Amino acid sequence: MAKVWLLLIFVILEAAIVVGQTTDPYDRSNPVSAQTQFGAVEGFIHAASDGTVSNVFLGIPYATPPIGELRFERPIAPEVWLNTLETKQFRNSCIPYNYGNVKVPISEDCLYVNVIAPSEPSDDPAGYPVLVYIPGGGFWYGDVIRAGFDKATKVFASRGLVTITVPYRVGLYGN
């Protein structure tokens, strides 16, 4: 009987963990498109709780995945894609030097930028100023996922800034 209860508790805990990992409170159903030098991307329009609205593009490749023979090489520009690339989810973070306590998905395939921009066109002919966020961590750790897009919308897009978050390879893969 104890084994049955233990199994039941394990199944309930496993289901709770999966639900917790897949629950996302943000609506990504209102699409917005843009053109990059490598192809078209489709993100989503995000309305933050403070009323600020932004265009969000998550996971735009800025390099060919640095895996296999490219593992320890300098990044190479991605190949042009012909179909519109859906960019509505963060990609995995780069593998840190010590990943025992990491709470975000990690992978060697991690060279993807995220763009959060005001949804209204700029009145300035030069466009909006751009803030580039490169996480700290002394090339040992750091990721851009925890900062999120909702916070960037509220703090930066609300002030007329385009925010670009740039992950990079760290530890063994980045030195």
UniProtKB/TrEMBL annotation:
Hydrolase found in the keyword field: yes
Signal sequence segment: 1-20
Alphabetic keyword roster: Hydrolase, Serine esterase, Signal
Entry-linked Pfam families: COesterase
GO terms of molecular function: carboxylic ester hydrolase activity
All copies of domain Carboxylesterase type B, residue ranges: 34-174
Annotated InterPro entries: AB_hydrolase_fold (IPR029058), AChE-related_enzymes (IPR050654), CarbesteraseB (IPR002018), Carboxylesterase_B_CS (IPR019819)
Entry keyword annotation includes Transmembrane: no
Entries under SUPFAM superfamilies matching the protein: alpha/beta-Hydrolases
Family membership noted in the UniProt record: Belongs to the type-B carboxylesterase/lipase family.
Protein name: Carboxylesterase type B domain-containing protein
Native source organism of the sequence: Panagrolaimus superbus
